Amino acid sequence: MRVLHAPVNVGNQPWVLSRAERRQGVNSDVVVVYSTWLGYPYDVCLGKVGDRSARAILKRGLFGLASPFRYDVMHYYFGRSLINWDDLTGVDGLQFLDLKIARRLGRKVFFTLQGCDVRLAANSNARNAVTMCKPGGCSVYETCLSSLDRRRRWFIDSILPLCDRVFYLNPDLGHYVPKGQFLPYASFDVEAVEPSPPQSRGRPLILHAPSDPGIKGTPRILAAVEALKSRHDFDFQLVENLPHSEAMKLYRKADLVIDQLLAGWYGGFAVELMAMGKPVACYLRADDLHVLPPAMLAELPLLRIDPEDLEDQLGAILEQRSSRPDWGARGRDFVRRWHNPNAIAQAMIAAYRDPDSRFRFEPA
Predict the structure, then answer these.
(1) How far is 242 from 329, CA to CA, in rounded Å?
(2) Domain 2-187+341-353 has CATH 3.40.50
(3) Model confidence, pTM
(4) Domain 205-338 belongs to what architecture?
C-alpha cells in the first residue's frame, strides 16, 4: 500500500503520522507544494512559494495529475489538494482535479482538517462568546466574512462528500463537518522526547509562543502577565518567529506554558510541551468537547483559563508551586496515551484498508 500525505505539512502532523506509518510497513510519503519558514520536514518539495514560472507550475501540475496513478491512498490536509494552490491566483481553474481523478480510479481519499480550512468565521462569531473570529481578533476576520467563508462552504458541500473519511483536529470543526470524526494530534513523537519537568521552587519561567497573536489571544495574555508582576515573582518569555528546532531549545526551560486564550482547544505546541512534562494552561470551550472520547475528556490535564478572569487564574496557578511537577507528569502521561503517533497510525492504516470500518484510536 502506497500512501501520499499532501500538499502541506501543517503543524508537522503529516510528517509524524507518515513516519509512524512507515514503521508499520506502509510506503508513506509527504509531498509539499512549497516549504515554509518553520522548517518542517518533507520527502519531496515541488517548488518555492509564489513561483509563477511556467516550469514551476508545470512541475506542480504534472506531479498532482500523476499522483493518483502512483498512490493507493491520497491523504490531504488543510482544505487543499496538490492542484489547489493558495499562493498562486488565476491558475486554479482545475482545482482538486487530482482528488477527482483519484475517485475515478477507485483510490482511497482522506482529508484531515486543521482549523481555518473549514471554520466559518461568521458562524463561530455568532455561536461563541469567546472566539478569535471577531473584529480585533484574527487579522483576516473581515476577509473571512467577505470571501473566505463562501469558499469554505463550497469546499464543505462540494469536495468533502467525495472523500472516504474526513477527520478534524480541533473539536469546534465538528459543527461544520458533522460527518467527520475528531482526531487527536499526531504531530510529535511523544515517546522520543526526554522529560524536562518544571521546578517546584524558585523563580518560575512562564512561556508563550504564539504562531498568530490574534488567534492565540496574546495581547490579553501579555496584559495579565504585566499586571501579575507586581504581586508575583516570575520571568516571562515570548517566543516568536523562530524555526521549530530553535524554539524547542527554549521550551525546555519553561516551568509553565500558556498556549491560547480564544480558540477553545489546545494546539500541537501544547502537545510538545506536555510531552516534555510541562504544565500547560489554555482556554477550553465546553460546548465543543462532546466529540471527544469520554475517557479522553475525563483525563484532560490542561490548566483551564479564560479571558474574563485571566489575571486571577494565572495568579492562582503561580501560587501552587508544589503542584507544577505533578501537573507536568499528568500532561506527559496524557499525551503518551492519547497523542501517540504509533497508535494513531495503526488506526489510520486500518481505515485506509477499509474506510467503512470503525475508526478507533483509543489506547488499550
Answers:
(1) 27
(2) yes
(3) 0.93
(4) 3-Layer(aba) Sandwich (3.40)
Convert the pLDDT of each residue in 136-173 to its tens digit: 889 999 999 999 999 999 999 999 999 999 999 999 99
Amino acid 144 reads C
Count of beta carbons in the 10 Å neighbourhood of residue 328: 27
The three cell numbers locating residue 91: 491558475
Cα 18 to Cα 28: distance, rounded to the nearest angstrom: 5
DSSP at 161: G
For residues 52 and 146, what is the distance between their CA atoms, to the nearest angstrom? 26
Count of C-beta atoms within a 10 Å radius of residue 56: 17
C-alpha cell at 301: 490535564
Residues of the chain with CATH 3.40.50.2000: 205-338
Q: Which among 25, 179, 16 has a CA at the least distance from the CA of 5? A: 16
With beta carbons less than 8 A apart as the criterion, state whether 30 and 6 touch.
yes
With CA atoms as reference, report the closest residue to 237 among 224, 222, 215.
Answer: 222
Q: Within 13 Å of residue 318, how many CA atoms lie on the same side as its CB? A: 23
